[in-house]
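User: Assemble these into one structure.

Assistant: Restating your components, then the assembled model:
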Amino acid sequence: MVEINFNTLEQKWQKKWEVAKIFEVNENSKKPKYYTLEMFPYPSASGLHIGHSFNYVLGDILARFKIMQGFNVLHPMGYDALGLPAENAAIKVGSHPEDYTNKSIINFMKQQKALGLTYDWSRVINTADSSYYKWDQWIFLKMLEKGLAYQKESSVNWCPKCNSVLANEQVQEGKCWRHEDTSVEIKHLKQWFLKISNYADELYEGINKLDNWPEKTKAMQKNWIGKSHGTEIDFEINGKKWPVFTTRPDTIFGVTFVVVSAQHSKLFELVTKEQKKEVETFLKKLKSVSEKELETLEKEGVFTGSYAINPINGEKVPVYAGNFVVADYGSGMVMAVPAHDQRDFEFAKKYKIKIKHVIEGKMDDGRAYVGPGKLINSLEFNGLDNQKAKEEITNFLIKKKIGRKKVNFKLRDWGISRQRYWGTPIPIIHCSKCGAVPVPEKDLPVKLPKEVKFGKGNPLETNEKWLNVKCPGCGGKARREAETMDTFVNSSWYFLRYCDSKNDSIIFDKKKVAYWCPVDSYIGGAEHACMHLIYSRFYVKFLRDLGLLKFDEPCLRLFHQGMINDEKGEKMSKSKGNVIEPIETIKKYGIDTTRFFLISVASPDKGFNWSDEGIQGSLRFIRKVSESLEKTKLGKDSPELEFKLNLTIKNLTNYYDNFEYRKASIELRELFELIFEQKEISKKSLENSLKLLSPICPHITEELWSKLGNKDFLSMSSWPAFDEIKLKVKKQEVDLNEKYINLVKEIILRVESKGVKVTKTYLYVVPFEVTKINKLKVSKEIGKELEIFSVKDEKKYDPENKSKKAIPGMPGVYLE
RNA sequence: GCGAGUGUGCCGGAGUGGUCAAACGGGGUAGACUCAAAAUCUACUGGCUUAUGCCUGCGAAGGUUCGAACCCUUUCACUCGCACCA
């Protein structure tokens, strides 16, 4: 047998596509646009792994399908090159991050090109290039102008391994998202923040409009943004008003104490002289608690010495400092109702504080009653249903001007300061006279200096020449901001830049972005649900408000690809040595086989366990297809093939549109299996079959296409249409009489076996079947008297309304 | 605890009311080819000593229906995400 040299064949076609520039696109097309995007990679020296390829192949199949469907398809690629891992990896191998990254990118590109992807390489982006991050800085300055970028002293999450600050989203179970063995420390630092909270409500409500996003991702984002409606109530403490947020104003008569967060910035305004020592001891103890213990921490607190006055009934209740109250949510202070809140209950038990019931309901096995009920012990509100009471009490408080309705969000502002080198420099100059002065727009970009020393602390602090500059305000001595931006800043808007990636005078041409965006289909890992995918929604809303965009959401459809594990089902990792490199697989089996295998073993969203044996099956199929021309003569189609081809066109059109590639691969196998059985097949049908396979296996189909005498590219040809009539004809070929006889016989048998005597049978069929049924024949065969009605027949005898069950090819049956 | 989702044959997985012992693939068994192996091809691959027949069967238990893997109720198991947000 002649072994096909897939590698040569594949390279040949890749070269031809490249020379013809068929995947390079522009806005001057009469076709409708389609923007499909895969999340860009973080280039590392180890190169592309099979999970990357899976991601790209999923997107590529869609892109190829859409091209053939007649869309003007934008399918770009770039590199999320800035960030800590690259810096750390570079230090480890004794290289400079810039050199390390550039090398990695070249390697990545080479491997991506080998996959035969439809990228428009003329638009490639590298976020580590100052021509890109210049616009990060520009956006930052715009945010500063609008008051959305600001500096504040705050407690921040600090990872000792990264030697830097982390955003809230980057802290997972008290650990760094990059170092699962490293506990995050809390440090107090002056930091730059982006006011994402300004958009909290729009980010939350906008989720409802994201119809083509996975439910799970939407739920995660909602949970993360955490919108809750409640009431803010003023409690008076030592003559001053302290607001408290609650979602349960109906329980206000049950308040027996108030808890202020131990981290509250104004805590000591509440602490009396007598209690000062005790509170300080408590705070010290809290600091010594490690992050691990925090997860199972018992609710603890200490009396501050102060009392709060419950505004609704004037009751005096003690104020505690507690470890379980979140300082920067609401006002950092809560009213405690131990009878109807589990946390308050535990706290009250521990410190022997009074528990007062204000809602009817039993407290089971020593737990607070949190269910619904009627109010008690609540003066004029007694007897009210507690849901109703929420409104009435809030209205009462509003009238008295001691409370108001309030919406609170869990979403915090985004801390973007990083004390590391390999990130976008924050375009700020600190002057002793003028304070923090923005770098003038004309001086952008602030480039990263190459000369720095790595090792201790922030490398940017080691280049004095770069650091020392004149103040743009007064011209005096000043110093650059030595912090860089979080890497997620770079990825928050890169999909916009693709539309005009070479523009060096403005961030992008509004018209070009208006043409291509929003992204029609976005593919990437689910791990970005609460980081990248919230940040980019925020950026889009901000840029829209600047007047640069006319849409609200970055992408209309989102798809998360599954994980590819090793044969044992374990996650691939370098340390385990179980990483499958696509380059190796491609060399061995060819690209088309690899692509076919990747999508045929599992649903794209579920992933699968890699198997070297499994790929043999795909190889067998690809070989057979590539030999199909020799095996099958060109001629006429059999009716069977005609039908199957039509059906396959119809189904695959749907499958490709909905990431159901696995099903597509199955039907393609069936179709080609049938083709191999044929003595002859029409050229047109064979060509159409090749078209159907082309998105998954573009190389061999292109080869066969040209062997059939075509001079153009199959990749650019038009998607085949199917003939609905031919599908219907096939259905009608089935002999209804035979079918109905068997069916009714079976039912009668079943019913009679239960002891019921059947004398007469009624069939209800869809109208066009009425004439097709031979009443005499059927009646004779089943041995019963028979009546046949059309379901549309108004006068039909149908005591149990069985006619509603009838569908084409399936009657409703009533027995007497 | 809250949220999202999943449970089908040896395995991966189709199938959402009748044509289902259940697509397609992987694996396995037997046979053909071959000196032999690989590749390729053919048959079988829930049980019943073999039948266009019966039984069992789609996590478990009930229910609706002439009929359920598919609809309803309850339940169990697993996976993932969030977790003191008042």
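DSSP finds 27 helices and 32 strands in chain A.
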